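Quick start: what a row looks like.
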Amino acid sequence: MTQALDAVIAGLSPQRLGPYLQHSNGDPLQALAQYHWNLQLSEALYPLLHLNEVVFRNALHNALTAEFETENWFQGLWLHSREQQAINKVLTELHKRKQPPTADRVIAELTFGFWCSLCDRRYEHKQILWPKLLKHAPLKYLPKRQRQRKEISRAVNRLRQLRNRVFHHEPIWHWCDLAQRHSDAGELLAWLNPEIARMLQHSDRFTPIYRQGMTPLIQELYR
């Protein structure tokens, strides 16, 4: 048991297990149970995070296309420098790969952070984007109380924080509001596309995994 445990810790590295060991008062079995539970929670969140990112990106792209009357809206001069740099980086990468810089390719290459940044207050100044984007489907289907730039920004940036933790393999199991964040992400997806949100409900495994906690995992590790 000790040899196997040492091998697991060495493979993961004490540094990566550091936050888990800290929460478990140095108990390696407890730390590994936490680590395993974190893997399960992250896996269960992946479909919801993935769908939110894709659907939000497409919704914003469609709204921008309608507002600027071109799918190549990113060629305009209205972007702030940080977002323009992100566009330029994508165009450079496509050029290196000898791929035409079509709108579909550019949109797919942009990070989730880019899309979230378009909801910043900077784009409300002089009404560059907001509130006029709210009239375009599917953003116009947001509940009335959320039909404000700041509410959309709050929701997507809260989602982005969770997404980054999961996609970068960081601990989330100990977040006291993790269940609420899952619920908020589900609500955001329902704002953007109720049918996709309904589809996901049939395969979302987060709640039972979250409710089971670590106890079964600890018992399994002791066997």
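That is the whole record. The first helix runs from residue 2 to 12. The CA atoms of residues 57 and 115 lie 6 Å apart.
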